[in-house]
Amino acid sequence: MSAVAQRVETEADAQQELTDGFHLVIDALKLNGIETIYGVPGIPITDLGRMAQAEGIRVVSFRHEQNAGNAAAIAGFLTKKPGVCLTVSAPGFLNGLTALANATTNCFPMILISGSSEREIVDLQQGDYEEMDQLAIAKPLCKAAFRVLHAADIGIGVARAIRAAVSGRPGGVYLDLPAKLFSQVMDAAAGEKSLVKVIDPAPAQIPGPAAVDRAINLLKGAKRPLIILGKGAAYAQADEEIRAFVEKSGIPFLPMSMAKGLLPDTHPQSAGAARSTALKDSDVVILLGARLNWLLSHGKGKTWGEPGSKQFIQVDIEPKEMDSNVEIAAPLVGDIGSVVSALLDRIDGSWQAPPADWIESIRSKKEANIAKMAPKLLKNSSPMDFHGALGSLKKVIAERPDAILVNEGANTLDLARGIIDMYQPRKRLDVGTWGVMGIGMGFAIAAAVETGKPVLAVEGDSAFGFSGMEVETICRYDLPVTIVIFNNNGIYRGTDTDPTGRDPGTTVFVKDSRYDKMMEAFGGVGVNVTTPDELYRAVSAAMDSGKPTLINAVIDPAAGSESGNIGSLNPQSVVVRKK
Ligand SMILES: CC(C)(COP(=O)(O)OP(=O)(O)OC[C@H]1O[C@@H](n2cnc3c(N)ncnc32)[C@H](O)[C@@H]1OP(=O)(O)O)[C@@H](O)C(=O)NCCC(=O)NCCSC=O
């Protein structure tokens, strides 16, 4: 019981049991099955964290709110329950907001709960401690934003936040809790009654029969059909239905990055290693929880072959997603599980497998690409190049298919995505829709906390920098996280120079840094490796030990290309200035 609640209890009728805002927030979260809070303590939520811990909620305290927010977001993706991030007011809130916006963009259910300063002072702009109109700032960056002013409304506020985060298209929700709310006191029985258990927070959305017919007819008429699996399909946890749909239909599938493993990358129907062919030559494409955004070249242009050569079936829970970039011939609005089950029912005796020449053209392209890649993965050179190092990590994951792979960087991301095969759903967590750097340690921590599985975070040296201080958090909570830093001394590569000779080049870091020493500073294991063989041995040992480990993998500073394989997004100057 908080000091305030205690004092009021002794002063008032000793028979009357009281509760306060702190307890009501905790009770509301617990009632709705929230088992973990990710956050950073401070005014005015320090006691909330302490009390939540005392009440049995797992509270994971971070060093920076952005990382706590990313952890909450990916916890939401992994569990289909909203991940909760708790922050202090103004600056802490703003630090968490990047993660909230990223969660919304990626459709991860998350609730950012921030303490805030007094309404009366904020609204008159009288300069309160950490004064900021947080609700107004959060609104455009999330699905919904709520503020609770009275203890009796905490139950409703938490319920609304949960339902908004997980129903329909999931996303980020902001819940503003002013400092004064926490010490508001009310009768305990009335408080308990005011709590709301959210029933059926994400109701199934069944597709209309006509929409299913339209999609099935299109698929039946296709000569070169393709299934694209997005992270929405991974989120849905309809793994068996999706697998059955792919296998019974016989249609080749192409997984987006975080959908890898829904079916194993080694599955005979995978078109992952024949991506260009699959996109360019297909005639009917069914998008399962994948959006036609930049990652799919907006469904048009040379990636997609001849203009007009494509017809799209799109499965999405959000009707407004349809026709966002190109015409969708067969929109299928509903949740992935319900839609796939409906499609599956229609794959009956009259279904014919796709034409053999289509299957063969994907297979031969795939085999050619894999054969071309194979020798590069076996190179045991020192310093390492990306392919040699990733060849080692590919083996590590093949031997531990239930491990979770977190991945960010430029070349480190783009090459790992293709090279490291995934075998199980929701085991690959990466930069997602925005291609955002900084998710690494937050994702790794939540993956370990939520699943208890070994986590391998494969990080570019630049990407790691955004969340690197959380290695202390990993050591403090003794989490089974192995971090590999691909250290090539800079962003993209480590060879740039300042043409004026005054400063370091804008994309380089301190040469030959030893990131492994950071881990040792906090009692974890640090290892420095220079060959793929050493890397394989060090990562295998770390993952088997379950001890927090950071492996500094020395990569040739000249290895790597600008922006990995999305260099075309980087504008280039067309003017050469005369000196
Ligand atoms: C936009 C993309 C979806 C598409 O990239 P593409 O290069 O077209 O495809 P990728 O999937 O990367 O595959 C590249 C090629 O490798 C082939 N490929 C894929 N897997 C394999 C395996 N296992 N073996 C052999 N070859 C393979 C694939 O068929 C392609 O060849 P072909 O079929 O022959 O073409 C991707 O680049 C992406 O997800 N980018 C996000 C990057 C990001 O977020 N960066 C953060 C910012 S970095 C900050 O600077």
Outline the fold blueprint.
Blueprint: H1 3-11, E1 18-20, H2 21-31, E2 36-39, H3 46-54, E3 58-61, H4 65-79, E4 83-87, H5 90-106, E5 110-116, H6 119-123, H7 134-138, E6 144-147, H8 154-166, E7 172-178, H9 179-182, E8 185-187, H10 188-194, H11 209-220, E9 225-229, H12 231-235, H13 239-249, E10 253-255, H14 275-281, E11 284-288, E12 311-316, E13 330-333, H15 336-345, H16 356-377, H17 386-399, E14 404-408, H18 411-419, E15 428-430, H19 440-451, E16 455-460, H20 461-465, H21 471-476, E17 481-487, H22 516-521, E18 525-529, H23 532-545, E19 549-554
Parallel strand pairs: 2-3, 2-4, 4-5, 5-7, 6-7, 9-10, 9-11, 11-12, 12-13, 14-15, 14-16, 16-17, 17-19, 18-19
Antiparallel strand pairs: 1-8
Helix pairs in contact: 2-3, 2-8, 4-5, 4-19, 13-15, 17-18, 17-23
In the CATH scheme, the class of the largest domain would be Alpha Beta
Structural class: alpha/beta
Which ligands does the model contain, each kind named once? the ligand CC(C)(COP(=O)(O)OP(=O)(O)OC[C@H]1O[C@@H](n2cnc3c(N)ncnc32)[C@H](O)[C@@H]1OP(=O)(O)O)[C@@H](O)C(=O)NCCC(=O)NCCSC=O
Tell me the CATH topology of the largest domain: Rossmann fold
The low-pLDDT segments are none
The CATH architecture of the largest domain: 3-Layer(aba) Sandwich
GO molecular function: ADP binding; identical protein binding; magnesium ion binding; oxalyl-CoA decarboxylase activity; thiamine pyrophosphate binding
Protein name: Oxalyl-CoA decarboxylase
Enzyme class: lyase
EC number: 4.1.1.8
Write up this protein.
This protein has three domains: 19-194, Thiamin diphosphate (ThDP)-binding fold, Pyr/PP domains (Rossmann fold), CATH 3.40.50.970; 209-364, TPP-binding domain (Rossmann fold, 3-Layer(aba) Sandwich), CATH 3.40.50; 378-554, 3-Layer(aba) Sandwich (Rossmann fold), CATH 3.40.50.970. The protein has a six-stranded parallel beta sheet, sandwiched between helices. It is of the alpha/beta class. The radius of gyration is 25 Å and the shape is globular. It binds ligand FYN. The ligand CC(C)(COP(=O)(O)OP(=O)(O)OC[C@H]1O[C@@H](n2cnc3c(N)ncnc32)[C@H](O)[C@@H]1OP(=O)(O)O)[C@@H](O)C(=O)NCCC(=O)NCCSC=O is lined by residues 257, 272-277, 295, 369-370, 373, 410, 413-414, 417-418, 431, 435, 563-566.
